[in-house]
Amino acid sequence: MAEAVHAHLAVHEALSGVFGSISLASWVFLLVPQLIENYKQGSAEGISLTFLCVWFIGDLTNLSGALLLRLVPTVIALAVYFCIADLILISQCLYYNTINARRMRKISQMSTATEDSAEQPLLRRDTNENSRRRSSLGLPGSHRRSSVSRRDSLTPILEESSGNAAWLKNGMAVMLVCLAGTIGWVMAWKSGVWHPTPEHAGPIGDRDMQLGGQVLGYISAVAYLGARIPQIVKNQRERSCEGLSLLFFLLSLLGNFTYGAGILFHSLERDYVLTNLPWLIGSLGTMAEDAVIFIQFRMFRDGAADVAVE
Known about the structure:
By secondary structure, the chain is mainly alpha-helical. It contains 13 helices and no strands.
């Protein structure tokens, strides 16, 4: 029976399965790079908390829609996993923001006490300078503005080299995720765990449930599209992408592209596309916003030399 299924597997069905598997692998590893980046920095000041919260709303409505439409268990399991991962990342950001805010208040109090002291007035300038240095060291990443003025003329060359190395390393990671997703699909297909979904199969449930699922799907799409706007504005306002993981956004781009491709390769029938339109908008629409963030990564990395001149 399995051999007969293998023999009659159409190319578009295989591509749909491969893209869906790669998308699954991308979502599983998506938040890990940003969690690691925050841990290494000891700070979450680079990522917008509004971005994460709106994204979490999108994931919650996505999960609700999947449950209402009684989608396949893998889709529901992935939606649950992503909500949990969102909460972990948000909790980490809140933790670092709280710890660093307390540290800054303590440094500010020490600085104020020093300034109010009537003793050793001639040492105030040195004390204030030391306080500013401690303040800069208190928040990892907060030293990025002051430290650039001490860079030498080799900085642009070194930044170009390290920037290219980062893109190469992250590109290799993306290729490994693609490879893992492809191998996973082949193993699932050969073992009979994965099998093509009939093109005319629709969501299970009555008309009201289907309508409710569609509404939740559109709410989710709007949340996904709006989530990146605070991050883009934050990057532009601070003219920096420091503290953001480039791999995080690369995996997001890969996951959204392969998710949309998996849907479209399965079927292009009008009813099927309309049913999945909210998820197509949510996945393919955010790719343009990810492209803006990639441009910001490039712009603000090259702009470091200009800051040094100032």
